[in-house]
Amino acid sequence: MVRFELKKVLGSTSGRIALVLLAVVVVLGCWMSVSEVEWVNEQGDVETGPAAISKLRNAQKQWAGILDEARLEEIIRENQRICATPEAQSQDYQQNDIAYGWTLGIRPVLNMMNYAYSKDFLEYDWYCNEQVTPEQAGDFYTNRTKLMKQWLLDDTGSAQYLFDENERNYLIHQYESLETPFYVDYTEGWTQLMYNSPFVIMVSALILGYLCAGIFAGEYRWKADSVYFSARHGRDRAVWAKIKAGFVMVTGLYWASVLIYSLVTLGLLGFDGWNCPLQIDLWKSFHRLTLWQAWVLTAVGGYIGNLFFAFLTMWVSAKTRSAVFASTVPFLLVFVPSFLDNLGSDTVSKILGLFPDQLLQVYQALRYFYVYDLGIGVFNAMELLLPLYGLLTVVLVPVMYCSFRKRAVR
Hints:
By secondary structure, the protein is mainly α. Helix content is 66%, strand content 3%. It has helices at residues 2-10, 13-35, 50-61, 69-83, 86-89, 93-102, 107-116, 140-153, 159-162, 165-176, 188-195, 197-221, 225-230, 237-269, 291-320, 323-326, 328-341, 346-352, 362-365, 381-405, and strands at residues 39-40, 46-47, 65-66, 183-184, 371-373, 378-380. The strands form three sheets. A two-stranded antiparallel sheet has the order 1-2. Strands 3-4 form a two-stranded antiparallel ribbon. A hairpin with a 4-residue loop joins β5 and β6 (378-380). α2 (13-35) runs antiparallel to α12. The two termini are 25 Å apart.
């Protein structure tokens, strides 16, 4: 019966079109990840493609290792040498691009310096690294915590309204307990994989929600509900078959899409840097994760989010008997929070941090300071989102079953 339900959904014209769209999304996600990696050659021109990826990887591999004070001093001196060249001092943009290309091997560290040596925690100055001296190398890690504390404890800043004392202590502890010095390496494979993951995971949720919308509403659309409910197992086994079909379809298509996207992207860009800390890319993040752990969290969060969206869509279709109305549910859950977030309110953003759309963009959520004091302890958004929507997804199973099983034939 499960196979029959899957054939009804995936064998239809609309189902086949949805599968083609899902494949296109995966291909686009891989293309976006690979095409965004650039190399600037000796003429100041931008190169892309496999050769550019190889050149960038080799340049950054030369600086791979433990980023201790001695290595930081070495990188600062190299940056000073490049900044003093005629190319860097020139008023010609092409010459500036040539000098920029020389910094690509140390660019990840220079980007971190722009945060570590800025005047304010919320500030990012692209040219800040040019002002850093070797004598300041010892302040690289301590500045990260120092600037964060200044922001949290500033009585005139926005942080005083966002966090209570327990939440502030939690964030400070997360910063102070982060293991340093960092291990740095070429990490483009992992960072590009996660940067573009919201596109793949979000669009997958919309497509899978559309496919699931017709599972319960199909009999009403085809005017076959009378026959369906009068059948021997029309109100028990057949209902379970629909639920199982939705679960199998979402699980199979989601993980197939994510695994193909992951393997192609990492296969082309490289698996290097899997054990580097998240802060190499998200300097301000308080989460103590390596890049591979962040990707596992992103993929698992996306799966729970896709499953929740799909089951919620199926429940709405069972209640309303309308596949069209039910298919709008994923769109509303994705786009309404994004619209509300544009209001610019930090308090609203913190509330939206617990909405299910966050599961579809975990890597983006890891950069935000979403922490919640629940009285029994302080929890970050991921510690609440995964169990909360995992539980709601499980609860939706009997709710769907009862909703459709009790529908009267009219």
